[in-house]
Each structure stands twice: as C-alpha cells, then as structure tokens.
Amino acid sequence: MDKNKPPGISFDDVILSELTFSRKEALSSKLPLDMKLNSKISFSQKEEKLAYELSCQIRDVEDCFNIRCTMVGLFSIIKGQENMGLEEYSKLSAPAAIFPYIRETIAATTLKAGIPPVIIPPANLSLLKQAGSKSTSSDS
Prior knowledge:
By secondary structure, the protein is an alpha+beta fold. It is built from 2 helices and 5 strands. The chain is elongated and about 55 Å long. The two termini are about 25 Å apart.
C-alpha cells in the first residue's frame, strides 16, 4: 500500500437498516448512559464488495430510555486504482465512514423524543477493531 495515494475504495451507499427507540414517560436526564458498539462485516471477493454493518445501542442504567441504530455502509474496489484491500479497509476506514451517520441519527431521534439529545463524542474506532467484529465471506 502506498500511503501517499487514496485507498482506491468507493463509499457507494449508507443504509439505515434499524432504528428502535423507547422511553418511559418519567425520565431523568441525569442518569448515566451505557453504550455498546457492534459490527458485522460481509465480503464478496468475486465482486470486490464490502458491506460493513455498525450498530450502536444506548440505554440509561434504569432502563427508562433505549435506542438502537444500525447502519450499513457499502464499499467497492475502484478498478485500476486499487491501493488497499477490502479487509484492511474494513478494520478502521469503514467504521470511521459510517460512525458519523449513527451519531447524527441518535442525536436527531433523541431530540425529537423530547429529551436532551444524546450526542456521542467522537470515538477512537480502533477500539472497535478489538471488540470482536464478526466477518463473513461469500463468492457471489
């Protein structure tokens, strides 16, 4: 890989695949929140495509509030500009591309729910790599 060149991978689409939200009427805005991130990676080696699914679940410690948001980013190799493999790209660049969409969706949803918006701070996504991502491959 030439670090002076772009990776040669196209960010083709982002899809909101799940958004669930619940809250109880009485909700304290001062409760600590618990956040979990999970990922799932699917490769199609034959088509040189990657589907990277990133899920974020946030709830308060008393279960008065719960939100889950899952986004899927679709990526593909740019023919003739290959500079990085999809597997390497999926480790850090793919989640970094999708994470801002999750942050915005959670902030907007919680704001519209009549509670103080949950604003997720920027995160070190290299920690997600250590969180145990699941990978699947297909030849189709």
